[in-house]
Amino acid sequence: MTTATTEETKNVPQDVKEPVKDGADTVAETNNKQTENNDKKPAVAEKDDKVATPAAPVEPPQPKFTVKKQNFEKDVVYLYQFSRTPVIPSMSPYCLKVETWLRLAGLKYENVDHKMKHRSKKGQLPFIELNGEEIADSTLIIKELSQKFGKDIDAALSQDQRNISHAMVSMIENKLVWVITWWKTKTPENVIKGYKVNLQHALGTWVPNGVLNFLFKHSYSRKGLKKVKAQGIGVHKPEEILEFGQNDLKVLSDVLGDKLYFFGNEPSILDVVAFANLAQLFFLDKDVECQLRDYLVDNFGNLVEHTNRIKERCFPDWEDMCKNLDLNSHLPKPPPVEEKPKEDGDKKAAENKNTEKEAKEPSDEKGDGKKEGEKEPEDK
């Protein structure tokens, strides 16, 4: 009994917990207060339940489907890059780098004709989509694809050769490419002439090329010069920048020597990067002035041969893709649908018409059985 009383008074006010002195009235008063507190308990519990019970979880908004190529095929690489030009597959060394590597690695890929409307989440071109996932930046693209498909074209290199390759690639992509970029932004009209860019086709727009060229020259030059100055090379004098590029070409030529490729008889990632950048110079229209291109051609025949060698090995369809501006000239084309000559169709229609006419008009030998010119017999 004592235990029960103690348990019941746990929640009773302090004045109720004081020792009961005497009298039934005091006990009754205590019991009444206990009853009131017990009546309040469910309300408290209900309140606690409301606090403890979490509200139904609100479903977060579904993220937007960012993959551009929604009807993708498994393990096919979808490449987003700049449009073709009549003299080079891409006027971006990074785009040309990725496509060259894809061909060397033998991976199945498809260029997406997006008219340069899309950029990666990082704001870059090129980028790829593989099995519904986006990968941006040319170096990361090659790294990810190499690991996934086991296509390391540097697998045969020693550690010393890998170190040399890393240093040379860094020189090209952190110095030489900026010399070329400086030339492009300094003379944007030579970019249009040198690569014979058709902006109307590249952008898929109805705006006349004259207007597009005007906008391109001002926008490309303004933004480009800001970039080369921010990088550091743009603050130098033109002759100093030219010398930087010439020195880089000499280093490349010395490392290549008389070898087919930089590390022997098979191309490596260094060959890919060197080709993608040297092609920007070598394949420029010959009527466009470019001092660094002239210096390359006049002094480094082995680099010129190397550039042509990679072109012939990786791009047997070079002429076709540049002539037709075809992003996917490497893919098999569906057979043309054979159409019957129009004359045969008209002839057949005429025959059908004659047949229908004959069916409606019975011949002279049918029907009443009389021959032409025969008189009907008279009644006798």
From TrEMBL:
GO terms for cellular component: cytoplasm. InterPro entries: FAX/IsoI-like (IPR026928), Glutathione-S-Trfase_C_sf (IPR036282), Glutathione_S-Trfase (IPR040079), Metaxin_GST (IPR033468), Mito_Protein_Transport_Metaxin (IPR050931), Thioredoxin-like_fold (IPR012336), Thioredoxin-like_sf (IPR036249). Residues 7-24, 36-51, 336-380 have a biased composition (Basic and acidic residues). SUPFAM superfamilies: GST C-terminal domain-like (SSF47616), Thioredoxin-like (SSF52833). Residues 246-310 form the Metaxin glutathione S-transferase domain. Belongs to the FAX family. This is Failed axon connections.
